[in-house]
Amino acid sequence: MNPFPPLKCALYVCIDDDAGHRSRLEAVTDGGIVVATPADVAHLDSVHVGSHLVLFWINADGRVVLPVRLTGILPGPPERWEVQPLGEARRLGRRRHERGGGGEPMRLSTFATQPAVTFDSTLLDLSEKALRCWTPAFDIAVGERVHVRALLSIGTLSQIGTVTAVREAPNGLGQHLVVVFQSPSASTVQLIRRYLFVWGPVYRRARRGAEENE
């Protein structure tokens, strides 16, 4: 099975575990892979021929990751990067409902009351199917439909869902809600997958730093 996405499909170039820079697959040759130079290349001062990078893309089964080395910069327009794989493309193991992240500001809007009530919230964690968030104490019931809007680091999540759990926050201040999404679009699922992909290395670095400071 060809591990690469179709030509001209989107993929992302990661540098030092960063969020990834949007690119696309231009060609697969005997000697390597050619990708479009990321649009924000002007800000990538640390990248040069010989740099080790990571490509990743998303297919129906999840995320596929490939470590590469930058072997050449092909002049344009458009400018392209030639990279050489440093191993096999591998599919990252993914639970059906992988969860992670949290801390971003959110807003929830209800549909049950007219006019709709909107209040601030905080994301606790996120998966492709649902999210968990903190809210101030509010009269909201299981089964109620809400609109959630979360400002993620890589974009804005805007989704309608149903409240499936309402619990008192452990400290007694406010509530924790679980909202299951209503038929998320392919672009929404991809946004969430990218967010979780980025969150993983950031979380691991923060955890290592905390352990070193103990």
Structure notes:
This protein is mostly beta strands and 214 residues long. It is 13% helix and 45% strand. It has one helix and 13 strands; from the N terminus they run βββββββββββββα. The strands form two sheets. A six-stranded antiparallel beta barrel has the order 1-2-3-6-5-4. A six-stranded antiparallel β-barrel has the order 8-9-10-13-12-11. It is elongated.
Topology:
Blueprint: E1 10-14, E2 21-28, E3 33-36, E4 52-59, E5 62-74, E6 80-85, E7 90-91, E8 105-110, E9 118-126, E10 130-135, E11 145-152, E12 155-168, E13 175-181, H1 186-213
Antiparallel strand pairs: 1-2, 1-4, 2-3, 3-6, 4-5, 5-6, 5-7, 8-9, 8-11, 9-10, 10-13, 11-12, 12-13
Domain PilZ: 94-197
InterPro entries: PilZ_domain
Pfam families: PilZ
Head-to-tail CA distance between termini: 47 Å
Coarse morphology:
elongated
**From the helix content, strand content and strand pairing, which structural class follows?**
mainly beta
Order of H and E elements: EEEEEEEEEEEEEH
Major sheet size, sense and barrel closure: 6 strands, antiparallel, barrel
User: Fraction of residues in helices?
Assistant: 10-25%
What are the low-pLDDT stretches, counting only 5+ consecutive residues below 50? 202-214
Number of strands: 13
Strand content: 35-45%
Mean pLDDT, to the nearest integer, reads 79
Q: How many helical stretches?
A: 1
Q: Radius of gyration over alpha carbons?
A: 20 Å
Biggest sheet: strand arrangement:
1-2-3-6-5-4
